[in-house]
Write a structure and sequence with these properties.
The complex is a heterodimer of chains A (about 260) and B (about 325). By secondary structure, chain A is an alpha/beta fold. In chain A, about 30% of the residues lie in helices and about 30% in strands. Classes of the chains: A alpha/beta (about 260), B alpha/beta (about 325). The complex binds flavin-adenine dinucleotide (FAD) and adenosine monophosphate (AMP). Flavin-adenine dinucleotide sits at the interface of chains B and A.
């Protein structure tokens, strides 16, 4: 079984997100970079399915050259192949991103054979467009369901589960198929030292993406409105317990 | 005359509250454009005409096909795409739920049109080369983005809970039009095949009190006093991602950008630093109480109330005090 996973490099902000002076991006001066938790789980799921059913895992990313870091992280966990679609580092719109990823996937498939499963995150952590995976699936003519929290493979069918307000919905997709996964589907592993070392020397294929700009153009980032509240300090240590219980009573929560 | 088309979300005929937000947002947009509003019920029924009418829709398009009897992103998305081609609406609106975003993206992909998720505000643009000016949320709500859209048919989802649903003063009944899409079995390949019901009970989404723990709790066993407090007050336990990553609690307990967004009366954050991705999941709480050893922690400065101290001592003391008062 051959699996592809698309991941996006994003900054990992802490207490707050600072916007750069020109309003175009996040100030990443003091920030580390990561991939969305959804996508980390997608990589983990691909590795687990491969351990069970055989095959290999290829990770794709479109982004700044530095996104090489996220691909190597995937390799350090056990993915076999990595493909970088380098850009100038600006955030591409979803239509353009999807078209470029679909092209790169087609090219790979023409060379090495079809991916039985292509995994995406449910949404990217930063732009959150909720669509790149769906657009890629559509371009490739493949079945796609988003929001997946469980996958089982048997007899060429991917059985996928998604949470609803009242329980679980079950989908059955004949492979090749595309799924968007959510954090919680599994608990991702950490790389081993050996994995880390070998990933440094591994090959990352570079495919220069083309793609025409789509209709959505991000102009600038703005801080979200925040309700500022003066914090009332109820006390220190366990002596504050009566004050907390007073608060619970005041809020009508103990009736 | 062109209309704003609003996608109604429903599960096998039972209308989701999110639909009312979409209708309200769609009505606002239709007003700005000076056009009417129509609703679309993919696989729905004429019974939805009443609600659609009371939120200002003049027409409801009931899209009827055996493959739409249950939800399926591709069958729903393809049907919406066909209706959009037929009607040529001025805009297509849904609410940014799992299904709302998914159906809109499926339809937009098929039409090769842009789709913008989680919009807060949309207006026709005066800028050269741009047809629409939008404000949308990024980072799960912790950042906004001003966006220009060049599509003549904007396909937008409005951020869930950002619009307050409001019916119109003098409601009418929406006229019912039936649309039969051309679908084949391949479109139904992603239809829901089966369901597993969750046992009823208080959940993160419905609890009035959430006792939430972070890395400061220290271990899975150390959650016992938090569970005890939650049980004592009829609430549930929540947690941060540091906790789920350590395997101390299941992911279903996680609050935040990639967990659950909660809105209890009181959110008690024990040993949680208040990273922005956690805060976006908790900020809709009516009141927040932080229990933290660090008076400078972001959670403490953002909270309504705080207790500075060791959660391992504070939390059991609170349970004991409640039990003492109850006698
Ligand atoms: C894209 C993305 C999405 C994310 N989504 C989520 C999400 O959905 N939910 C989420 O929670 N996080 C999410 N995160 C992770 C987030 O950035 C933080 O890493 C995480 O929330 C930190 O958890 P914490 O507050 O428990 O741990 P820490 O940041 O380590 O904080 C521990 C706190 O406990 C306090 N403490 C320690 N000991 C005690 C004690 N004995 N008594 C009282 N206080 C004590 C410390 O002072 C500190 O404030 C996401 C990150 C990214 C990049
Ligand atoms: N630049 C990118 N490179 C690789 N994968 C991406 C990129 N952008 C988005 N994706 C994938 O598409 C999913 C949905 O993204 P979005 O439509 O931006 O919410 C993400 O979770 C990723 O799996």
């Amino acid at each position: 079984m051959r699996t592809a996973v698309c991941v996006k490099r994003v900054p990992a902000p802490g207490a707050r997100i600072n916007i750069s002076a020109d309003g175009q991006s996040i100030d990443t001066t003091h920030l580390a970079f990561t991939t969305s938790p959804h996508e980390e789980c997608a990589v983990e799921e691909a590795l687990r399915l491969t351990e069970k059913h055989g095959g290999d895992v290829t990770v794709f990313t479109l982004g700044a050259g530095a996104a090489d870091e996220q691909l190597r992280y995937g390799l350090s966990l056990g993915a076999q192949h990595a493909v970088l679609l380098p850009t100038d580092g600006t955030d591409w719109d979803p239509q353009r991103t999807a078209a470029a990823l679909a092209d790169a996937i087609r090219e790979r498939e023409a060379r090495d054979g079809q991916f039985d499963l292509i995994l995406f995150g449910n949404e990217s952590a930063d732009s959150g467009g909720f669509q790149v995976g769906i657009r890629v699936a559509n371009a490739l003519g493949r079945a796609c369901v988003n929001g997946i929290k469980g996958i089982d493979i048997a007899d060429g069918i991917a059985t996928a589960r998604r949470e609803s307000d009242v329980g679980l919905e079950v989908y059955e997709l004949a492979m090749p198929a595309v799924l968007g996964v959510k954090e919680g589907i599994n608990l991702p592993r950490y790389p081993t030292l050996k994995g880390r070392l070998s990933s440094k020397k591994a090959d990352v294929d570079v495919v220069t993406p083309a793609g025409v700009a789509g209709g959505q153009i991000a102009l600038r980032l703005l801080p979200a409105a925040e309700q500022v509240s003066e914090t009332v300090i109820l006390g220190h240590g366990p002596d504050a317990a009566p004050a907390i219980v007073d608060l619970l009573e005041e809020l009508g929560l103990l009736s | 005359m062109s209309t704003v088309l609003v996608v109604l979300e429903h599960d096998r005929g039972s209308l989701a509250d999110a639909s009312l937000e979409a209708l309200t947002a769609g009505r606002g947009l239709a007003g700005q454009l000076g056009v009417g509003m129509a609703a679309v019920a993919l696989g729905g029924s004429a019974a939805m005409a009443g609600v659609a009418g009371s939120y200002g829709a003049a027409t409801i398009h009931v899209v009827d096909h055996e493959f739409l009897a249950d939800y399926g992103p591709e069958a729903w998305g393809e049907s919406l795409a066909q209706l959009v081609q037929f009607l040529q609406p001025a805009a297509v609106i849904a609410t940014g739920t799992d299904r709302g975003n998914e159906v809109m993206a499926q339809a937009a992909a098929r039409l090769d049109l842009p789709m913008v998720a989680n919009v807060l505000e949309a207006r026709p643009s005066s800028m050269a080369g741009s047809l629409w000016a939008l404000t949308r949320v990024r980072w799960g709500g912790s950042l906004l983005e001003s966006t220009s859209l060049t599509s003549a048919t904007p396909m937008l989802t409005f951020s869930h809970h950002a619009v307050i649903a409001e019916p119109i003063a003098a409601p009418g009944l929406a006229g019912v039009e039936t649309f039969v899409p051309s679908l084949d079995a391949a479109h139904a390949r992603t239809n829901v095949r089966d369901r597993v019901e969750r046992p009823a009970g208080v959940t993160l989404a419905t609890a009035r009190i959430i006792v939430s723990g972070g890395r400061g709790v220290g271990s899975a066993e150390n959650f016992a006093p938090l569970t005890e407090l939650a049980t004592t007050v009829g609430g549930v336990v929540g947690c941060s991602r540091a906790v789920t990553n350590n395997g101390w609690r299941p992911h279903s307990d996680q609050v935040g950008q990639t967990g659950t967004r909660v809105a209890p009366d009181l959110y008690i954050a024990c040993g949680i630093s208040g990273a922005i991705q956690h805060w976006v999941g908790a900020m809709a709480s009516k009141k927040v109480l932080a229990i933290n050893t660090d008076p400078e922690a972001n959670m403490v400065t953002k909270a309504d109330y705080a207790v500075i101290g060791d959660l391992h001592k504070v939390v059991p003391a609170v349970t004991a005090e409640i039990l003492r008062r109850r006698g």
